[in-house]
Amino acid sequence: MRGLAVFLWVSALAFPADAAAPVRDVHDLRWFVHVDLIDAGAGEDLAFWQGVIDQTMAEATDLYEGGHGPFDAPCCTSIERSAAVTTFGMPGDGLDVLDSAADYAAIAAIGLPGSRAFLVDSLTYCGGPAPTSIGCAQTPFCDGNPNDDPDLYLVVTLDSRDGGTLAATLAHERGHNACLVHVDGDECQVMRAAAGGHCVDATECSNLMAGRTTTGGSCTCHDMASGLEPDGTACTGVAGGVCSGGVCGVASGDAAVSLLAAAGPESADGATPDDALALSGLTGGWSDLGPLSGGGDVIEGLAYAHDAGVLYGVVPGPGDDQVVTVDRVSGDITATVGTIANGSERLVALAYDPGATSATSDDRLLALSTDGTFEDLVEIDPASPSTAVFIGSLAFGAADGFRGLAYDSVSGRLFTASPFADGIYEIDTSTCPFFCGLTQQTGFDLSRFDASLSYSPDTGRLYLVGTQIGLAPLGDRLLYDVVDPAQGAVVETRGLDAFTPAALAALGPLAECADGIDNDGDGDIDFAGGDPGCDDASDLSETSPLLMCDDGADNDGDGFTDQVDPGCLNGNFPREDPQCQDGINNDSDLRIDFDGGESIHGVCSGGTCPPGVSDVDMDGIADPDPQCVGKPFKNNERCGLGFEVALVLPLIVWVRGRRRG
């Protein structure tokens, strides 16, 4: 229950101010598509390619701007389009495949002056024979020019689009325009010889920012004072947006998803997965929360019960596997809820099925159990998690072949991840036992080792983290994938700063009153921090419709909201428009409010005050009501017993009564 707070005095008014976001450095490009790529009959007209290019630039900007792990330096820079996309070349002129120095000389003269980008089918030449290249760009002399060197161009190809790396290729080639050269460092670096990474270091960021063409806007999820805004912070980049990994995304999409992983953060080469990592759903960017509790415990499966708000994990052991609960904020193991005698097998993946009804009696945990040869599908009752009931063996397998497990509770489909062709398979439980059928999800190309998989009913998407085995110069790399199982499509693939994955859980929205963030910007954080809008720690919002000064609305229409409103003493205050800040002369003394009414009617300027502002002596300076000076929250402009004194009076009477006794 909330009541009216009593305050005996006020020493000062504090108005919270948001830390400034840095100004964005912009890479404006003019885009050209070769005429032979236009196929209106197939729906690939110029408008189609402009849509592809705009989406690619947005993804490349997210790549620069977002955080993808501790190595990555989020960079406040963007790639944007300076004009409508146009075609270049003539049908059949051969410039859709760049294979000679003469071809590059031809495009170098197109669209001058300024920086340009060309979309072609493929290329086999880039300063020399380059039969496997998917992009090419000029690398200018780095002369310290603070803006764009003139007349630069870059080329990206449909080959890179077909391989799912068009955005990364664009970011890579624009990096060359900014004087960056190939590196052989962290596996997720965007400037490795083979494009596909998503990380830049601080020096590369400096080059990218110096290589801008202009500036404009800001990175709304960056904070000049403290770096990236916390995930879940409201942002203005998109309508109703929230920050995720330093990027502003749609609140109903991946940006609202938080992921928790059990992993080894030290490297991608078999590190012990004994730490908890927090991942951002939009970018896959991660931070290490520290070792799992219990002295080096290893979790090899995680599953979040969205309807119950419980995060389960499995800790394999010699002969016995433990089913545990995990704190979703800290990653700490909070309790052991069951012990399963599993012999030589171990549980390596976990998924949650909420059942067909809202009753807990049909809830179940699904797990993969392996002896190192084949994987078995088993069922565990969350109410008594000490027995694993055999459902069936996967129809084919290999040593630790299938690892990730995720249950699509919307359509009732069970998925697993593997290093086999296309990577994602659906398990047909209707064919169990003895063997459960597997249906390959074709076209995904998500072959991943050490795969961790989870499903979010909030977005209807699968989230996958795993290692892609590659040949030089690309090598092995850790990838984060977002999959729409209903559409059978890969939504996003991002290269991450490396870690060794072992388990992954997609968590539901965290209650604002327990997320460690000042969501409503009133200076109070969560229920534990005394936010007046929080009923308890499970309250989803830090604002309350019952509190005018903490409801997130400008109730009196003066341009100020909640505790920023001068009329609000604090979040518990009953109104935003007390008499000392309502723009009205309530006591007929010709003077108005604490500021003469300027906060309502406008500020006096040039010796003139706006209508409604009190200027009794006609000097062009607002004359406030003496009873309101320094007290905009006061609800009485008259002399005598005022609002504050009336509140204190019952306390004085009570004290006097005690003394007489």
Helical residue percent band? 10-25%
Name the beta content range.
25-35%
Largest sheet: 8 strands, mixed
Task: Write down how many β-strands occur, each being a DSSP E stretch of 2 or more residues.
Answer: 34
Averaged pLDDT = 85
Radius of gyration: 30 Å
- In spatial order, strands of the major sheet run 22-23-24-25-29-28-27-26
**What general form does the structure show?**
flat
Structural class: mainly beta
Can you describe this structure?
It is a single chain. The chain is mainly beta. Helix content is 11%, strand content 29%. It is built from seven helices and 34 strands. The strands form eight sheets. Strands 22-23-24-25-29-28-27-26 form an eight-stranded mixed beta sheet, with no helix packed on it. It is flat. The model is unreliable at 1-18 and 640-661 (pLDDT under 50).
